[in-house]
Amino acid sequence: MGAGNAIERKPARPELGYRPADALQHKVNDGDSWFTLATRSEVVSKGMSALDLCFYNFRTRDPAEINWYLYHQVGCRKRTADGRNYIFSKDDRPGVVYLPDPLSGGLCEEAPDCPPGSRKAAMVDQRSTCWFKIADNSAADGSKPLVELSSFSAVNRHSATIARVARDTGVDARLISAIMYMETTHGYYDAPLSAIGRNKSILPMNINVAYWGNTFGSRSDLEKAEPNIRAGAEMLLRIRAHLPPDAPVSHVATLYNNINATRVNHYGARVQALYDTQPWDTEGAGQDGGAEPHSRRRGCRWWLCLALAGGALAGAAALSLGLAHDAQREFRLGDGDALDIGYALAVFGAWFLIVSLLLAVLLGGLCRWRAGRRP
Which residue, 76, 186, 231, 305, is the most exposed by fewest CB within 10 angstroms? Predict the structure, then answer.
């Protein structure tokens, strides 16, 4: 390897000095990336993306091999925040990459694309080297939603395991933590189903076993914390293998949430914000408030109605949160957009039953206590 912990692999037949036909030299500078270069007019005129530029320069789609070329051919020495990939700098020597000449004839050869619907197969078959193309989205909101309950975060509880998995796999520990924080502070809507082993996705990394099957481990394995975290890291590794080395966290996280996404969603934007701010380092016990207590009533004749209403509200809230979060499309049937009505009803019903029973016990006890205090 060229340096430190950057993930590199020497190609079987390296082509150092390769220059595409009809190519223009570009001296890289601070702030350059495959994404910024893809916005230049000469690249846009050829219909090329950041993904295509990597293939155009190095004739490979393997991120580890791209890193090898960045070190040995471009002369990159600076690395991304996680230390795993090289980035461009004005100090790179020779610091040259190639852009297509807009005056040359024909379109440049592009790397194969994995369209939505074929990406699950590409994730399962690790020999696949096609690209997952995903666009930025200015409408994606990375701010903290009301449903994010910081007290449910499992990051600090599993910090030692996260560090160990990151060391073993090469996945950025901060990225694992950001995904886990997102999933555990948002993904509590199916907790009642989890208690009876009927949930589709399993925390703390919320691996959707109904969608992925045993690709990342069996249900019994994923119910254990460390295998679950390793499964999440493995999924992140496979997603990274289908993206350019400098793909932002928002792209990776969006695909973790929905492998068929074509542009950054709210989930990806929020994970990017969590990755940047690392709230698990600063937040103490959760400050998220619960529901206001019900008003006291003089008689007990309404306690059953209140319990049922509370259960219905809890079920509706859990279902709404689940549909909004939709971890790895667990509320969808296969790769389509059709709602899995059975699973939605199961989430609603589980919360309805549990909350209704709890409220019935609590309100019934309160009513009996009040009745006993009456003169």
Answer: 305
pLDDT, tens only, 301-340:
456 667 778 888 888 888 888 888 877 888 888 888 888 8
| Residue 105 identity (one-letter amino acid) | G
Q: How far is CA 102 from CA 45, 106, 108, 219, in A?
A: 6, 9, 10, 52
The model's pLDDT over 127-171, given as tens digits with 9 standing for 90+, comes to 676 889 999 999 999 999 988 989 889 999 999 999 999 887 778
**DSSP 8-class letter at 276:** H
Q: Residue 223: what residue type?
A: E
Task: Domain 119-281: state its class.
Answer: mainly alpha
Report CA-CA distances (Å) from 144 to 87, 134, 272, 273.
Answer: 30, 23, 12, 9
Q: Which H or E run includes 208?
A: strand 207-208
Rounded to whole angstroms, the Cα distance separating 223 from 246 reads: 32
**Alpha carbon 182 to chain centroid distance?**
9
CA 84 – CA 174 distance, rounded (Å): 12
The first and second tokens of residue 175, run together, are 């990225």
CA distance 25 to 298: 83
287, burial (CB in 10 Å: exposed 0-12, middle 13-18, buried 19+) = exposed
Domain ranges of the chain: 23-100, 119-281, 303-373
CA distance 203 to 320: 19
Residue 292, token pair as written in the block: 């206001």
